[in-house]
Amino acid sequence: MGHYATVWDQKEASEIIKDWNGVDQVLLRNPHGASAKISLHGGQVVSWRNEQGEELLFTSNKAIFKPPKSMRGGIQICYPQFGDCGLLDQHGFARNKIWVIDENPPPLYSNESTGKSFVDLLLKPSEDDLKLWPHSFEFRLRVSLAVDGDLTLVSRIRNINGKPFSFSFAYHTYLSVSDISEVRIEGLETLDYLDNLSKRELLTEQGDAITFESEMDRTYLRSPKVVAVLDHERKRTYVIGKEGLPDTVVWNPWEKKSKTMADFGDDEYKTMLCVDGAAVERPITLKPGEEWTGRLMLTAVKSSFCFDQLELQSKGF
Length: 317
Hints:
This protein is mostly beta strands. The chain has helices at 10-13, 127-132, 254-258, 310-314, and strands spanning 3-4, 14-18, 24-29, 35-39, 44-49, 75-78, 100-101, 116-123, 137-146, 151-159, 165-176, 183-186, 192-195, 201-204, 216-220, 226-231, 236-243, 247-252, 272-286, 291-302. Residues 3-8 have low confidence and may be disordered.
């Protein structure tokens, strides 16, 4: 299943547990007390905790934890469609399927497992999937937890079809924040974005940082490899790094829309924010035999971290 590439016991680094529906989850730990849980339903990261046991990902109190519906929160795998800009259900079908543990995955680059506990998952299309979306693929997902508590997701999608196909993709990432009105995002200044609340109108970001006063649903185009989410009240900064994912989606439903979602509390918009590494504007096309890789790394640091350090952080990608 997974490994921990240090001297401590591998059995303590990862184990399989079950949720209350009997669906397998993989629990990853590091030596300092940080942890992550990954559900085989959707390949979804449903928990990421730091060394103090604080939950870093948001999950709605009204989330529905019953397949085939995906759970509202965590990190959802949106494939082969993001949003509703296609023929499939919103965000595609990968997040609604049961994945399997990949015991013998093809190797990743050498440093991807060093000093980390990790698990490899695999999704292949079912006959029903092929009726909806007639393209054969292998989707391999590695989720790893580092000694310092960083969380990394690496997706590899291979075309095993006889013809090319195209897809959009996102790591739909629900971050836990103290108060959305006290949060800002740095790293997306001056970028063009599609305003999904205004028929995908193309606009340009004017602010020094992104702050929140109303509903937001934007796709920032050709965004940098690293952005930062600063939570002033909690004195915490999330550093979000990505590779192979040219876009960044920012979403908060605010009050009015929150009241229309059955699996979301009326006031929960105040304590969450989605910042997604994505490939949305220009779908990815794979020829037969080709493989695409998309990587996401999440770090939570004290707010003494400043945005000028992002250049240093990005050198790790």
